[in-house]
Design brief:
Blueprint lengths: L10 H16 L8 H14 L25 E3 L8 E3 L2 H8 L6 E7 L2 E7 L5 E6 L5 E3 L2 H4 L15 E7 L2 H8 L6 H8 L5 H4 L5 E8 L6 H10 L8 E3 L4 H10 L8 E8 L2 H7 L9 E5 L2 E15 L5 E12 L2 E7 L3 H7 L6 E2 L2 E7 L4 E8 L3 E2 L13 E4 L2 E4 L6 H14 L7 H9 L14 H5 L6 H12 L3 E3 H7 L7 H10 L3 H5 L3 H5 L5 H14 L1 H8 L3 E3 L19 E4 L7 H10 L14 E4 L1 H8 L5 H11 L5 E4 H9 L5
Helix pairs in contact: 1-2, 12-13, 12-16, 16-17
The structure holds 2-(butylsulfanyl)adenosine.
Length: about 650
Amino acid sequence: MSAPTWEDLSIDELEEHVRYHNRKYWVDDAPEIPDESFDRLVETLKRRAPESAVLSQIGPAGADVDVVDPQAEKLAHSPAMLSLDKAYDEETLLKWYDKFEGGVVVTPKVDGVAGCLRYDARGHLHVAATRGTGAIGEVITEQVRRIKGLPLQVEATGIEVRGEAYMPVAVFERKFKHEYASPRNLTAGALKLKDPDKTADYEIRFFAFDLLGEDFDTESQKMARLEALGFEIPEHHRVERDQIQATYDDIAARRSQLGYETDGVVYKAERIGEQERLGHTAHHPRWAIAYKFQGDAGESVLREVVWNVSRTGAINPVGIVDPVVLSGATVTRVSLHNLAIMEHLGGEAGLRLGSRVLMMRRGGVIPNMERVLEAGDTPVEIPAACPECGAPTERQNDVLMADHKDNCRAAKIRQIEHFVSRLEIKGFGPKLLEQLYDAELVTTPVDLFTLSVSELMGLERVGEILAEKLIDRIQGRREVAVDKFLQALGIHELGKHVSAILAERYDSLEAIRSIDAEAFAEVHTIGEVIARSVTEGLKEQAELIDALLEHLTLVFPSPAEEPRVEGSPLAGKRVLFTGAMEAMTRKDAQREVEARGGQCPSSVVKDLDYLVMGDADMERFEQGWRSSKLKKAEAINAQGGAITILGESGFLKLLNDGADQ
Ligand code: IVH
């Protein structure tokens, strides 16, 4: 078949071509059309028949290439190939560091497939295996022989080298990114192909970081020896306590330029003697720890700070930074949250313009300025007046405030904007709200409820149909859940989490309005500052609340049906737990899900949203292991299901998401 214009083909023909060329590439190893042309073919089919089953058969799986059969040879690891302990903050890391002497060696954590290589008495590569369960791996010697840059013979006898096989990002982008989600899965697949010659197509590489069978005093010596034997080793840095965080920051900032995927930074005690003294648990060595990245990171420079009037009237800083790409999107603006957080970021000198900063997108969503890597020289000027209405500013605890509430257009519009967003009244964007405000039709949230179709039609570009629709939407929100109502008031500290707590604990608004700050402060996660801000805010907004109640009916949750945290990503989700978790029992985990409005079915069902397992199982899963529940989940996904498979830490993140505002 020659390369026709794909557009001219019928869907049947497109499918046939995709199957044919996929097979040519993967099975016969004799592609007839260039990769780009194949990509275009697939794109065309995707666009014209997004449901086509052929789309899920692209790649080796669809080309009938058998993976190693389940009876394949196994290799027992001795000692076991352990996991790594994890840290998510500097404090945990320093606590770990203080347990031994002699500094650490730091390397990027390579996100690939762990494996071991054994060399025989003549120094020949004799057997290679995946990490597998840690105790037992699958033999993949022939596949590993196709890894470029990996010595098949070494000048040493009877050694075992351990490390990580990975696919360079450049290879992934050149050959696979259109069809596959991640280089890591491809690496695992490539190492299990039945025909080892095909493994070469994936251009897998191998980083060595452990050597058994020879003695060393330090990790640095071990790395040097591995390199001398001809292995590729990852970049490594020998550092002391004060450089621990900075080394992490540095690697995080260069993450996208490393050439391979990383999911954190590994620290190992430099002295082998100390490693031996510390020993290991059944799960991980005590002398090593991984400081995991929490999102995509990049480096930028802070150029300017602009000040934004928020719905609460606070004037909050927003950083303008040099463009930086995080999780695929270019970021130039980053909320610095409030005055105190901004100051804290800059350390003692305060945040300065021209600073080199570490930017991160946690969970891939909102960009955040994590910390200053190198201070700049120009101090940030804190405005003496509200940039919108000119009212003088003053510091109130953590925030810069101005008494502009009654005459600041920006603050008022933002308050209404916040109100419609929390009540989910769709269609009232900032432009429309500005028009309504300037026409004096809506100057407080209360005015929304008396707005008429004819008033709306008086505005530019609002016709009758739209006006009616907008009014319908407002009228459709006259019954509102009490926690949404509380959030909508725009009171400082009265966000999702606190509103949910109030809604759960009290059964009337009167009760909420008369709570005692001191008693409320005692509630878990509340504390004095929040309690005071909320009780005072409710008093300050008394007039607004009374006026709103003329138009609204508040609905209190009946505990059985209403989620405690309505905004939780777990609300309405089905979650199934499998295997043991560390932080809580399965029962407790189920209770937490249910408290957030989720459900916990007892088996893998079609409409399951999350299958959650302990991190140890998650790691085994990532190495290829499958329990029957996992197999079932994957089978459902292959048929259009959307079950997300999560480790414990991923689950904990979901639990906490939406727990604050
Ligand atoms: S040091 C556990 N350094 O992570 C022994 N391991 O989660 C310490 N890994 O199976 C190994 N990058 O294959 C070390 N720079 C790195 C690493 C690394 C990835 C893998 C390793 C291990 C897994 C544990």
